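PROTEIN–LIGAND DATA SHEET

This sheet pairs a single protein chain with one bound small molecule, octanoyl-coenzyme A, given as SMILES. Inputs appear in the order they were entered. The predicted three-dimensional arrangement of chain and ligand is reported afterwards as a token string under its own label.
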Amino acid sequence: MPRCARRHGLPVGKGSRDKVCGVSAATTPPSPGRQGLAPPPDAAAPVRHPDAPAPGEPLGSHYDGCFGCGTGQPHGLHMAITAGEGVCVTAEFTVRPEHQGAPGLAHGGVLAAALDETLGSLSWMLRVIAVTGRLESDFVRPVPVGTTLHLTARCTGVAGRKIHSTAEGRIGGPDGPLAVRADALFIKVELDHFTRNGRAEEIKAALADPDQVKVARAFEVNP
Ligand SMILES: CCCCCCCC(=O)SCCNC(=O)CCNC(=O)[C@H](O)C(C)(C)COP(=O)(O)OP(=O)(O)OC[C@H]1O[C@@H](n2cnc3c(N)ncnc32)[C@H](O)[C@@H]1OP(=O)(O)O
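PREDICTION REPORTED AS:
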């Protein structure tokens, strides 16, 4: 029996193989339909929304407190994300000491967050509200503190509520060595996803903001 199962008083024997420390054991097969990140053959090609920000336009922060892009988040990634051509975005993230895992190197979870934020920003180009359902990352080479990671993301297909996308991050410049990459599945949701599950009063206050550009940018797309 795993030590952590014993510590948490989980049932031993057959049942303890299913969940250890509350996490499904690796032997549990994913449910059907939740396996692939590549778009299915009948997925629609992504369509850039006519009101999407112009290529080269900075997207700004969708929420000041966002760990990925919020300027009011002291330990956040402070990512700068820019609209690209089609349904693509580019982003830059400079690794700071507070993002370390090993001495002098970025933490993998932080790099995954940078990929997630970049992929999530494709919502601006589609003008939908969507949240990450699944994110699969490859860490190809270590990313030292002080490095600026240049990320790109593009939507690869849309199937109903499911948005398939892919991203990569390169060290030092858009053509630098590949450091990280990810495939993701975002799921379209309604605004009430955030009011039901998050802080409804903050969202309602933001929707009442007299700055209509901010309202449209921040909350029609994704709080
Ligand atoms: C500009 C903004 C930038 C923001 C960048 C950061 C983005 C984020 O980090 S968002 C935060 C992290 N994500 C979350 O908190 C999401 C938490 N999860 C949820 O709320 C729900 O599971 C949610 C909304 C994703 C799906 O639930 P629900 O709406 O009930 O949909 P559900 O009916 O289960 O699934 C819809 C479809 O998606 C598929 N699906 C749902 N989850 C997954 C998954 N994890 N993997 C694969 N497929 C999935 C289902 O199989 C189903 O497919 P089909 O239509 O073919 O049957």
